[in-house]
Structure formats: structure tokens, C-alpha cells
Amino acid sequence: MPRDDREQNFEKALAGSLHSSNAAPGNDCLDAETLAAYHERLLGPEEMAQRKMHIASCERCQEILAQLEATD
Questions:
Q1: CA–CA dist 40, 43 (Å, integer)
Q2: 33: alpha, beta or left, given left = phi > 0 and alpha = psi -120 to 50?
Q3: Cα angle at 11 between 52 and 63, to 5 degrees?
Q4: Where is pLDDT greater, at 18 or 70?
Q5: pTM for this structure?
């Protein structure tokens, strides 16, 4: 898949998941930029480990990451 198409699909998956989430304001869910960086493995080792702990127990973040994986 061409890079531009992949990026558009990535953005659509994030936007759709974030708009349809049941996440309550003020919770510790990851924002779109952090989830994208996690998905692309652009975070440092410590931050990756911290985010992984959250994702392991967060259905919303798991669903978003699954959609992002599907765009690859």
C-alpha cells in the first residue's frame, strides 16, 4: 500500500475510534498521538513499558491499536 494511502487509513482508524470511544473525560487513556507513536514504536523504552501496562488493561486502547494494525 502506498505511504499516503496507509497514512490516510491510519488517520481514519484513529479518528473513528476516538470519536466512538466510551472513554470518560479525565481517565488515563492514551491520546491519538501517543497511540500512534506506540504503534509505530517511536517511544523510548521506559515510555513503551508504561504505555504497554495501560494498554494491557484498557479495552478502548486495545481496540484502537487493533484497527491501526489492520491499516498496515
A1: 8
A2: alpha
A3: 40
A4: 70
A5: 0.64
The vertex-37 CA angle with 35 and 39, nearest 5°, equals 65
At residue 46, what is the residue type? E
Grid coordinates 481514519 are at which residue? 12
Orientation angle between helical segments 45-56 and 59-71, nearest 10 degrees? 110
pLDDT in tens, 2-55: 666 766 666 666 666 555 444 444 467 898 889 999 999 999 999 999 999 999
- Find cell 523510548 and name the residue: 44
Contact status, residue 65 vs residue 13, Cβ threshold 8 Å: no
Q: Which three cell numbers stand for residue 40?
A: 509505530
Compute the C-alpha angle 11/60/67, nearest 5°.
40
